[in-house]
Structures are given as C-alpha cells and as structure tokens.
Amino acid sequence: MKYRKFNAIISSLNLEKVESALRDLMVSGISITQVQGYGEYHDFYKPDMMCSHARIEIFCHKFEAEAIAQCIMDAAHIGQPGDGILPFFQSRQCFASALKAKLPLMRVQQALKFIRMISSAMTLGWQGELT
C-alpha cells in the first residue's frame, strides 16, 4: 500500500478555513506548526522579508490524497501570491510506534473506517456506548 504525506504551507490567515474544511472531509489527523519564511510572497517591510505561514502535515492513503489536496487548495485559495504550496510525498510503509510494528493495510483501513464512523456519529449528536 502506498501512503502520501502532505506538507502544505499556507497563509496563516487561511488556517481556520482550511482546518474546518479538513474536518468536514473527516480527515483523521493533522499536525499544524507555525513557520516563518518567504517564497512567492515576500514581506518587503521587514529586513529579512519573512512572513508567517502555517505548515499542515497529513499522512493518508493514496486513494484519499487527491480529495485532501483539492480540499486544501479550495479552502486556502484567494488568488494572491503566497496562497500556499502543497507538495506531497510517497511512502510505501507506515509504522505505529505504539505497536512497535509496521501497520498492515487492512488494519489501517479498519482504523480509518472506525474513526470516520465515530466522527460522523458525534457530528450527528450520538452519545451511545461503543460495543
């Protein structure tokens, strides 16, 4: 199974909108860090030209990658330089440190299905017990 790692760098101004869109898509996990840098857009009023950005890291299966990329691009797009960049990388394996083992494809798929099911139920206000 191939996995993808997104390392999206977007404007900090669009972060809440992107987070909300990813939650609506039921992305099972993200990591966000605040970073400084410049690329397509420079802050010419600062001596180092650095701007504040948000870096979003997401690990997903290859079949989810395109939908996640489109979600981020749609939410982050305002049509200005510095909207962001969204490179993704391939990985053939995924390991879980809690298990100290490589995750087999079936287990990863089951975990993602379970997370989505619980997330949907909680969104609808379900408060029952898990069996």
TrEMBL record:
Does the entry feature the keyword Cell division, yes or no? no
Q: Per UniProt, which keywords does this protein have?
A: Phosphoprotein
Task: Give the source's domain of life in one word.
Answer: Bacteria
Give the organism the record lists.
Mariprofundus micogutta
- Give the InterPro entries listed for this entry: N-reg_PII, N-reg_PII-like_a/b, N-reg_PII/ATP_PRibTrfase_C
Q: Which GO terms describe its molecular function?
A: enzyme regulator activity
Name listed for the protein in its UniProt record: Nitrogen regulatory protein P-II
Task: Locate the O-UMP-tyrosine modifications and list their residues.
Answer: Y45
| Lineage, highest ranks first | Bacteria, Pseudomonadati, Pseudomonadota, Candidatius Mariprofundia, Mariprofundales
Quick one: a GO biological-process term for this protein?
A: regulation of nitrogen utilization
